[in-house]
Design a protein that fits this description.
Blueprint: H1 4-10, H2 12-18, H3 21-50, E1 65-66, H4 71-83, E2 91-92, H5 99-125, E3 135-137, E4 141-146, E5 149-158, E6 164-178, E7 184-192, E8 209-214, H6 226-231, E9 235-245, E10 251-258, E11 263-265, E12 267-269, E13 273-276, E14 281-284, E15 292-294, H7 302-310, H8 318-321, E16 330-332, E17 335-337, H9 349-362
Helix pairs in contact: 3-4, 3-5, 4-5
């Protein structure tokens, strides 16, 4: 991209904030060194033009900079002046023209530079995004049946005792799409709603919560069968949490993402919150944060489940009728866990519907 460097230099402050610490420290040292050298050159030129080096050691000569012999002395004097160390081995003569203006200029530039760099370092240390390091997402996402619907679940926890306020959560489903006109969008974004209990997208993160995305008609997962979700590996789900840091009032954002290899079908998260009767308080066991347990979940798409249980708009098409889910192995901390899938045979759609309805009635999923 043309002039890319100029665009970043136009916002040099934010560019430096986004840099890695090793580059920041290097720039910090180089900037001060350049300023020291610049004023050392000015001091050296003042002494040189006044003839201090030529008449050095003469008892009747009054130099602008006493005891300055070479450029190394000029550099040391520049550092002493800007940092107000003042060792006293070299000192300027106030009666020499240009001495006071140059001292004033260097001290002013030094204070200004130190103020800017100090503010920059404080912003670098106190960046709001560092707060996200104590916000943890589960390493896997699960799909289970809850309240008669298929839901995608993710666990979220906060390790700090200070909480985020006005916290919201939402998701983005990223997958390629081809429009009716044949236009291909390789990274098409689709909004996903996540809720915590009955709080909609609001999150009160005082203890670990399980975020739910209900796979309804508005969900991008609605038409996807188990093998499409677990094996296709052609999509990514990004989950974003936004909130305000209680102590500073700054906005913090924590993100994570899941692909096919990170999703387990037929599992739900173990309960890790329990009441401690001995101490009279609720406790969360973060050692079990990623633990899951198998649960009875239909191995069909949410669209198929809606047709069977809620009377969907259209029956199962023939392609869906003959699609037999092929599920990969899923693991938890307890080992390999599986819920057997109902057997699907090559029969007419009406026969498949009867088989699935019978399985639902017998709770065989």
């Amino acid at each position: 991209m043309g002039r890319k460097g100029r665009r970043f230099l136009g916002d040099i402050y934010q560019t430096m904030i986004d840099m890695k610490w090793r580059y920041v420290i290097l720039i910090y040292a180089i900037v001060f060194l350049i300023v020291y050298l610049l004023f050392a050159v000015l001091w050296y030129l003042m002494a040189y033009t006044h003839g201090d080096f030529k008449h050095y050691g003469e008892p009747d000569w009054v130099p602008c900079l006493n005891l300055m012999r070479n450029f190394a002395d000029a550099l040391l004097f520049s550092i002493e002046t800007q940092t107000t160390i003042g060792f006293g081995t070299i000192w300027p003569d106030a009666n020499c023209m240009g001495t006071l203006p140059l001292v004033y200029l260097q001290v002013t530039v030094g204070f200004l530079l130190e103020t800017i760099m100090l503010g920059f370092m404080l912003v670098k240390f106190a960046r709001p995004k560092n707060r996200r390091k104590t916000l943890v997402y589960s390493s896997v996402a699960t799909i289970a049946k809850e309240d008669g619907e298929l839901v995608l679940q993710v666990r979220l926890g906060d390790l700090r005792t200070s909480h985020l306020v006005d916290t919201k959560v939402y998701g983005i489903f990223i997958k390629d799409k081809v429009s009716e006109e044949g236009v291909h969008f390789p990274l098409y974004q689709h909004h996903m709603e996540f809720t915590a209990h009955a709080m909609e997208d609001r999150v009160f993160l005082i203890w670990p919560l399980v975020l739910n995305h209900r796979i309804t008609e508005d969900s991008p997962l609605y038409n996807m069968k188990p093998e499409d979700i677990l094996h296709s590996n052609n999509f990514e789900i990004v989950i974003i949490l936004e909130g305000t840091i209680e102590s500073t009032g700054e906005i913090c954002q924590a993100r994570t993402s899941y692909t096919s290899k990170d999703i387990l079908w037929g599992y739900r998260f173990e309960n890790i919150v329990e009441f401690d009767h001995e101490h009279g308080r609720w406790r969360a066991n973060f050692k079990l944060f990623d633990d899951v347990t198998p649960c009875q979940t239909p191995k069909c798409s949410a669209k198929q489940l809606d047709y069977l249980t809620k009377g969907g708009r259209a029956p199962l098409d023939r392609k869906d009728s003959y699609s037999k889910p092929i599920l990969r192995k899923s693991y938890s901390h307890g080992g390999s866990l599986h819920t057997p899938a109902p057997e699907v045979t090559d029969e007419e759609p009406s026969g498949l519907v009867a088989t699935l309805k019978k399985s639902l009635a017998e709770d065989r999923f």
